[in-house]
Write a structure and sequence with these properties.
Blueprint lengths: L3 H13 L13 E2 L7 E2 L19 E4 L8 E5 L1 E3 L2 E3 L2 E3 L2 E3 L8 E4 L16 E9 L5 E9 L3 E3 L8 E10 L2 E10 L1 E2 L7 E7 L11 E10 L5 H8 E6 L2 E6 L7 E6 L5 E7 L4 E5 L5 E9 L2 E9 L1
Antiparallel strand pairs: 1-2, 3-4, 4-17, 5-6, 7-16, 8-9, 9-12, 10-14, 10-17, 11-13, 11-16, 13-15, 18-19, 19-22, 20-21, 20-23, 23-24
Length: about 300
């Protein structure tokens, strides 16, 4: 939860900064939010949800196991009342429900405690994490840039989403490991808010005991526009449900191709190494999607229509 004074200082900084960042992205600052333990400043968890906070278990803590500085945030899935509460924090607010299917995070535009004003268009999200899953559990780090009302899952607010970056992870990662994911933009609008969420478990099927640590989140801004970067990497098009990628000659390292639907769900991905031309029939239903290609030269992103 935010201090109002802190939020006002952040807004002042935003007004003079060319490149906005996630607030308290290194988790160095913590505050008494009236819960069982401190929360990181500018972040909230289920104890400060809009409902059921008094019944919710503590799923976060301050950790001295940090990638840099003094602290990181530690998230853990906790079983309570027969339900596994996901280890989660967000820059917005959590709507909790006894049925996990009805839970979500949201931006409360009417209360500075529960929103992060943001008007830039970064190129990628990077950060550092550790992960100890239970069973086959999986976690994620996700940032949604939006206008108006914003929720995640989108729950009817998808038209307000301007772009998102999402990193999904699974398997044990016992040392601090860097991740980097591009923002996928759905339109040319200027966002009004940033809604970030970090979770230790796989949504409504989270497993009790999974633990994730996060530190040093950062938004990266490349000097070139996306279109300029695109032209340096490859030409991409879809024909008869075949994905066609014609790489430029100097792109010969391992690349990661990915297709996501407009809710941000990955529907297809493939590593591609050392080829000048790639063609693949796609096991994807008809519709509009966003394609991303990450290479040693940068990343490409564009909308594609599959018929």
């Amino acid at each position: 939860m935010k201090y109002i004074f802190t939020a006002l200082l952040s807004l002042t900084f935003i007004a003079i900064s060319a490149q906005q960042q996630i607030e308290n992205s290194g988790f160095e600052n913590w505050e008494d939010a009236g819960t069982v333990v401190d929360e990181p400043v500018d972040w909230s968890s289920i104890k400060t949800a809009d409902a059921l906070g008094v019944l919710a278990p503590q799923v976060w803590s301050q950790s001295t196991d940090a990638h840099s500085g003094s602290y990181s945030v530690r998230l853990e899935n906790i079983s309570s009342f027969g339900i596994v509460a996901n280890g989660i924090i967000t820059t917005g607010r959590i709507h909790a429900d006894l049925d996990p299917e009805n839970g979500y995070v949201f931006t409360d535009a009417g209360d500075v405690q529960w929103n992060s004003s943001f008007t830039d268009r970064p190129d990628s999200l990077v950060g550092w994490y550790k992960y100890t899953p239970s069973g086959s559990d999986a976690g994620k780090a996700q940032v949604v840039l939006h206008t108006g009302a914003g929720q995640n899952p989108e729950n009817g607010t998808l038209a307000n989403w301007v772009g998102e970056a999402r990193f999904d992870f699974s398997g044990t990662t016992s040392t601090w490991t860097r991740f980097s994911v591009p923002f996928i933009y759905y339109n040319a609008n200027t966002p009004a808010y940033l809604l970030a969420v970090l979770v230790a478990g796989d949504s409504t099927v989270s497993v009790n005991g999974s633990v994730a640590l996060f530190d040093d989140l950062e938004l990266i801004y490349n000097p070139s526009s996306i279109n300029e970067v695109d032209n340096e990497i490859a030409n991409v098009f879809v024909s008869n449900n075949y994905l066609n990628i014609n790489f430029n000659n100097d792109v010969n390292e391992t690349s990661m191709a990915r297709i996501v639907d407009l809710s941000g769900r990955i529907v297809w991905e493939q590593k591609i190494k050392g080829v000048s031309t790639y063609k693949k029939q796609l096991p994807v239903n008809a519709g509009m999607y966003v394609f991303t290609l990450t290479t040693d030269k940068g990343f490409l992103t564009k909308k594609i229509l599959i018929k």
